[in-house]
Amino acid sequence: MLANDSDRSGQLTAGAAALELRNVSVMYPDGHAPLHEVNLCLEPGEIVALLGASGSGKSTLLRAIAGLEPLAAGEIWMRGTRIDQQPVHQRSCGMVFQDGQLFPFRSVGRNIAYGLESQRLTAAERDARVTELLELVGLSGYADRSVQTLSGGQAQRIALARSLAPRPQVLLLDEPLSALDRDLREQLAGQLREVLQATNTTALFVTHDAEEASRVADRTLRIRNRQLAPVAE
Ligand SMILES: Nc1ncnc2c1ncn2[C@@H]1O[C@H](COP(=O)(O)OP(=O)(O)OP(=O)(O)O)[C@@H](O)[C@H]1O
């Protein structure tokens, strides 16, 4: 289903792709162009992994979708709305990074609540959402903990909870497990898939590890020659 089946008022249309890139190119100011006419379509709730050699443009692609890198050409659509001209804060994209990037001086609960502060929620509604998210990532009761007391795996689960709290239309994950040791990575890969499925989250997941990609995602793509190609099972 193409994403341009929105009606004239810009209303969302049932069946539109959760995320669609059409001929997207990115060029850095120095002339380096890691992405050239990239096409991608994610159905609602689909989890897609993205592999590629170091420097192939994986992070650049996520950053372009989030609005952190301008497009040299092409269009990005979410659920029938063109978003590539929208500023970062208006795009319904959550991001999770390799090192979590939690706010060190906020408690766990206030980290998770961060993306809810701009929403019109009562304090009770916000607390209830934080409790729900903590339960989802298996860390119930951690709301008042300092994030500086968390293990690496716990911190990544809180980063995931924080990114999911505002119910983003698309979640972008940039090697969220790669700073963890192998056993923990395998365990969290399974949990990550469970959490994304339980919340019916559409996700694009960057990893270096083909095995991890198949554990987390419904399908896997690879950046090669500045474009996306499917990876055979
Ligand atoms: N701000 C920038 N200005 C110029 N070139 C950049 C900039 N950011 C990234 N690049 C270049 O663009 C290419 C893609 O970088 P990117 O970080 O997207 O790769 P990656 O696939 O995520 O790599 P890795 O797996 O090592 O994290 C690289 O050659 C990189 O050097």
Automatic annotation (TrEMBL):
What InterPro entries does this protein's entry cite?
Answer: AAA+_ATPase, ABC_SmlMolc_Importer, ABC_transporter-like_ATP-bd, ABC_transporter-like_CS, ABC_transpr_FbpC, P-loop_NTPase
Q: Which GO terms describe its molecular function?
A: ATP binding
Q: Which keywords has UniProt assigned to this entry?
A: ATP-binding, Cell inner membrane, Cell membrane, Ion transport, Iron, Iron transport, Membrane, Nucleotide-binding, Translocase, Transport
Q: Which named protein is this?
A: ABC transporter ATP-binding protein
Keyword flag Cytoplasm: no
Q: Name one Pfam family in it.
A: ABC_tran
Positions of the ABC transporter domain: 19-233
Any coiled-coil regions, as ranges: none
Superkingdom of the organism of origin: Bacteria
